[in-house]
Amino acid sequence: MKILLLPGAFKGSLSALQAGQILSKNLAPKHTLRMFPIADGGDGFLDCLQTLDPKARLISTRAKDAFLRTKRTSFLLLSDGETAALETARICGLGRAQTLDPLGASSYGVGQVIMQAISHGAKRIYIGLGGVACNDGGAGMVVACGGRLLDARGQELALGAEALLRLDHIDFSKLKKNLKGIQMIGCADVTNPLLGPQSSAKVFGPQKGATPAQVKLLDKAMARWARVIKRQTGLDLAHTPSTAAAGAIAAGLYGCMQASLLLGADFLLQKAQLEKHVAWADLLITSEGKWDAQTFYGKAPLAVLKLAQKKHKPVLFICGTADWKALKKQALPQVCVAELADFAPSIKMAKKYAGKYIARVCKSL
After folding, report:
1. Taking a C-beta distance cutoff of 8 angstroms, is the pair 69, 87 a contact?
2. pLDDT tens, 174-218?
3. Among the residues of the chain, which ranges form H helices?
4. CA separation for the pair 76, 85 (Å, rounded)
5. pTM
6. How many angstroms separate the CA atoms of 252 and 136, rounded?
7. On the CB side of 169, how many CA atoms lie within 13 Å of its CA?
8. Rounded to whole angstroms, how far apart are CA atoms 13 and 286?
9. Which of 8, 39, 71, 303 is the least buried, fewest Cβ under 10 Å from its Cβ?
10. Is 287 helix (H, G, I), strand (E, B) or coil?
């Protein structure tokens, strides 16, 4: 059987590339395989791009994480020498966080890596958006790139979302100088807008440790951030699709840095020319740590399911767990689902030994 492997990451357990390697090892003896790790802007974005451009160089560097501790991270310089890619999850990621601070966490390190990519000659920068521990609207990133966030007395604000409640205006002068001639493209993992019922704070704030009271504060901070930017630039962040991505770092990119926003899953699947590979395959296998309502906000496995449906191809969806109660509200395509939690004695064990249980799923094929 010809199987197209399109593995996504199991957050906290396996990267998309690691999941793909385990699938390949266990299926190769009996089947003909093609494998492309998939991502949607969050975890695995750089792995996916590096698979598509093997001559790209991974540049090691240091930057602040979400809690302003200097950590080692990396970005990708593509083989053309003028295009860079970075992954917010590698810089201020949720997966690496031991403790959470939703009101104080910052995207400052993302701006640091952007500036380092520019110093390496990048003229075009793709920013993978997803999987972060902050919800500051990209304010810290803007500061690291030269922007100044000021209160009504002209004093610079502290980093973090809570300080934005006192934001009065933004000095863009140095930011514009630093980013002159640089094309920025944000590759988002969700379609949610910054504000409203599906806002960054309401939907993703609890993931970052926000209590119900803190979610309300985050929403107020993002509303003020949006109002100030609209007053100074005319751009409406509040209702623009995908501005909620990566703790609303997407909003800062779009509103302050003239970045274009697109869905990372669609971008990567098009770049990989997956339609022709789907046509070749008898079966598609994709994966994700948890299959729930958030998958339908524009995540990579959803793009795979849509493509399979378009090409009338069967899909095996391997996930750690599935939230069937939430999924009942979705229009589900026909798909065979394998939950690792069904093979393990507990969800905790399924997460810890995900590779072992993926191998067990493969034995049934």
Report:
1. no
2. 999 999 999 999 999 899 999 999 999 999 999 899 999 999 999
3. 16-27, 45-52, 88-92, 108-119, 139-144, 173-178, 212-233, 245-256, 264-271, 274-280, 300-311, 324-327, 347-352, 354-362
4. 5
5. 0.89
6. 9
7. 9
8. 16
9. 71
10. strand
